[in-house]
Amino acid sequence: MLANGIAYNRFDVSGLPPQQQLLAYWEQLGHIIEVVPSREQVRQSFICINNRYDIGEFRISDTYTDHVVIERTVARISRDNVRGIGFTIFLDGAAHLATTLARKREYPVCGGSVLATDFEQPIRLQRQACRYITLVVPANLLRHVFSDPWAIHGRALEPSRPATRLIVERARTLVENLRYMPFEDAHRRLAGLIELIADAFGEEAGLSGSKRAVGRALMFEYTRRYVRANLHGYELSPDSVVESLGLSRSTIYRLFEHEGGLGAFIRHLRLRAAADELVRFPNVPIKDVGYSVGFKSASDFTRAFRRAYEMTPQEMRLNDYRYPHAEWR
């Protein structure tokens, strides 16, 4: 605890033997994510310096690490209670790559970019050696812009945007001065930074910044509510949504372009619901779990689940996942 009342923790692996440094980093983050190393990486030295500050309901960290692949899997998500929205502000580095697993979409990011992740959805991040700031906030703080915070997952702010440059500069200044600020001042500045980030992502998604964006935001909220309310029905499809809500196909496409289309969004919601039920109800047959979330056959469910999460429903239930892209585990 700092003298100003801010909870502070520093984590540095430099005092450990080289072969223990990456594993120590893994253990530090193990309650949230998996680290996916190669055999060679484990044998080598690894740099990780993390300064974490807890300020009321907010958490902000200033970190430097070597190159690493990290992943938050659906198996972990369905077994823990870690929730919220994370913003990674890359201060340097190049050619980072984020992959949202269920949507099979890749998002290249570089120094000066801001990446948003929803802890309730799986993601894989190949991060080059860099310094970055991580900000974790409750999802409800974004609902004035994103009525469904799931929609922010995987979005990124480009470094060429003036708002992004302002966010990066304010975040850098904040973490470098937190230990000298009064608690109330630090909390106020952090809340202001979050507001700035939310507005920037809202504009990037076309949900704020103009009268037209307000109308789009209303359609965005209405459509997602309808899909969630009818998720378990076999008849739910892009065609049924278009017909029931009276929206044009072009409007639907624009609303769900980030998700890969409305069909992909429906499938993603069904698979996430199924993953939770596989863990919550271990004695229910897998085929019945698939039927309960709207899949029409057991084979369709298993095939879609494996394609999205790189594991079968049975492996997910048994927590028996092996990383096919890792050399050592």
UniProtKB/TrEMBL annotation:
This is AraC family transcriptional regulator. Residues 221-319 form the HTH araC/xylS-type domain. Signal peptide: none annotated. InterPro entries: AraC_XylS_family_regulators (IPR050204), Homeodomain-like_sf (IPR009057), HTH_AraC (IPR018060), HTH_AraC-typ_CS (IPR018062), Tscrpt_reg_AraC-type_HTH (IPR020449). GO terms for molecular function: DNA-binding transcription factor activity; sequence-specific DNA binding. It comes from Paraburkholderia lacunae. Keywords: DNA-binding, Transcription, Transcription regulation. The lineage of its organism: Bacteria, Pseudomonadati, Pseudomonadota, Betaproteobacteria, Burkholderiales.
